[in-house]
Amino acid sequence: MRRVGPRGSGQFERISWDEALDLVAKELARVKAQHTNRAIFGGSYGWASAGRFHHAQSQVHRFLNSIGGYVRHQDSYSLGAARVLMPHIVATMEELMSMHTGWDVLAKDCKLFVTFGGVPRKNAQINAGGATLHHVKGGLYSMREAGVRFVTVNGWVGPAPGETGGGPPASSWDMHGGNMGMGNAFSNGSYGMNFCLPRLDESLSALLTDLKERGMLEDTMVVAVGEFGRTPVILTEGPPGRQHWPQCFSAIVAGCGIRGGAVYGESDKTGAAPKSNPVTPQDLHATILHALGVPLSDLGKNTGIIRPPFSSGKPVMGLFG
Fold it and tell me: What is the pTM assigned to this prediction?
């Protein structure tokens, strides 16, 4: 596919593989000649497969290495936050993942099993060489037979009135419209903001009210934020919607000294870019740590591990008061 409209418009046209390869080769040659290989980012993050040859990321990296190299990413959205935070709290993710509690121990001693997003059997045991014995189904069944209670937390709001069937867990808020099979992103459907937003408003306001009435809001921080905003240009192909837009988006924070009823910062009229008091993701991270009383420059040791600085951002002190 080749983009034919403005960036973010979602307007593309089909082209042949030969033409696509020529376009990619021409652009790589231009970037390499003008900016060197340091300007080529080899991303293509994706789940590993049973082998390495058809693993998309490995193929991209091998190809880019053949023309002189590239800049790679560090960590991923799956474990990115955990790899940064857990060394300060317990240990590195490598250590923690090598110390999993056995299924037999969980079946014997666990009373409540809480998951965020569930435990999907299809990718719970993914590794580069492929898994041999799959233990997830048997482990979960043995826990159920032992009377363990299960609670799953995700972002699936549920089907809208009049719609039947379930939906992909945690996908209610991944609304885009367009030709993605989710319908109109602004509608009353299961993937529409007119259906999802009132339920967020109801649950979030109830949570904050409950914490306030119980005297727990000053010691609890609530953060509602996504990893992306949405494009200021609405898609014109398929049902209306918008695509990813990291340049500008909003967040809701409350508790731990955050003053209520305030708006910090401002975007331009289309929500394309910050207009005043911009806050970076690093600043939001530092603000959360500051509110929780975590020292941002602590380089001490924990279980023998030298910890890196907690955050490269700065707390937004204008939120407190």
Answer: 0.63
